[in-house]
Design brief:
Elements: H1 13-20, H2 26-37, E1 47-49, E2 53-54, E3 64-65, E4 68-72, E5 77-83, H3 90-103, E6 118-124, E7 138-144, E8 150-161, H4 175-185, H5 199-208, H6 215-256, H7 262-292, H8 297-304, H9 308-315
InterPro entries: RpnA
Protein name: Rpn family recombination-promoting nuclease/putative transposase
Organism: Runella slithyformis (strain ATCC 29530 / DSM 19594 / LMG 11500 / NCIMB 11436 / LSU 4)
Length: 317
């Protein structure tokens, strides 16, 4: 596969960790957290990367693997996740992930249960269903009581719905705006925009230049980019089919309404059956392609609506 883009795609696993998950580029992560996650709070001057794989307290407990997990100088914990595709229980997963940095703070012997702050950050390449008609990009969530007062201020969930960020280069005003702009547009840029001349963005564009990757890094990025593009293609196809299906159903319902004569009903029924068969075959074809590209089964199930048993049959064909 030939990489035509000048800069790495941060929504790929390799690209995200290349920019934010290495000691060499730690200053990028610190600035991102200060500007986007902690704009109205204290600023962190230093942080350390922690093990991103967390194991439960017993063998039967599930494990969690975070994209990035780091600890600030005052003990603050940051979990940062780049989520490429919509997941039914992504919010549940966020809550589950936050339980690990809570538990790891437990101390043996006498302990007063004082905890450090925990931030779970989701950078989303999609929008939550309930937000599809909203325009807000950044959602900050706290534990509140029945009077909407913050009950506990050390547990914060921040979700960035990137499709809602629509500012152009000319409209960028704050460093927060610039971070969101560069995350969304980086792989489509040929050169650093004039609006992103700060030193931190000079560092970012240097780190993101694909031509400077080692051969091993380039191979890893190609594999990561292929997975991202395949997944995006499956999702885009499912969305397009969903829209087509909606128009088809509306057309069929409109034709059926008010028609009682048996011959007319028979013709409509035949058209419905034919379109349903075509729709099912289309889903089967998407599933075959997704399986061939090793897309996880749970994602294929959500995109196609097929059952696990149906997917197993396709795999065994």
């Amino acid at each position: 596969m030939s990489i035509k883009e000048k800069y790495v795609n941060p929504f790929t696993d390799f690209g995200f960790k290349k920019l934010f998950g290495t000691e060499l580029n730690k200053d990028l992560l610190i600035d991102f957290l200060n500007q986007v996650v902690l704009p109205n709070r204290h600023k962190i001057a230093e942080l350390s990367y922690a093990k991103n794989e967390q194991i439960g307290s017993t063998e039967i407990d599930r494990k969690a693997i975070f994209d990035l997990y780091c600890v600030g100088t005052n003990g603050e914990r940051f979990i940062v996740e780049m989520q490429k595709a919509k997941q039914n229980y992504f919010k549940d997963r966020s809550i589950f992930y936050s339980s690990f940095p809570i538990q790891e703070q437990a101390k043996r012997g006498d302990w007063d249960f004082k905890l450090s702050e925990i931030y779970t950050v989701g950078i989303l390449d999609f929008v939550f269903t309930e937000d599809r008609n909203e325009k807000e990009v950044r959602h900050e969530v706290h534990l509140k009581d029945q009077n909407c007062r913050v009950f506990y201020d050390k547990l914060t969930f921040i979700y960035l719905e990137m499709p809602h960020f629509t500012k152009t280069e000319e409209e960028l005003e704050t460093t927060y705006d610039k971070w969101l702009y560069v995350l969304k547009h980086l792989p489509y840029l040929d050169n650093r925009p004039k609006a992103l001349q700060e030193k931190i963005f000079t560092r970012l564009f240097e780190a993101a230049e694909v031509a400077k990757f080692t051969p091993d890094e380039r191979d890893s990025y190609e594999a990561s980019l292929k997975y991202y593009r395949d997944l995006k293609n499956v999702i885009d196809t499912a969305i397009a089919e969903g829209k087509t299906e909606g128009r088809m159903i509306g057309l069929i319902e409109g034709k059926i309404e008010g028609k009682i004569e048996g011959k007319i009903e028979g013709k409509i029924e035949g058209k419905i059956e034919g379109r349903i068969e075509g729709k099912i075959e289309g889903k089967m074809e998407i599933a075959r392609n997704a399986i061939a590209e090793n897309i996880p089964l749970d994602i294929i199930i959500r995109l196609t609506g097929l059952t696990e048993e149906e997917l197993e049959k396709i795999k065994n064909e």
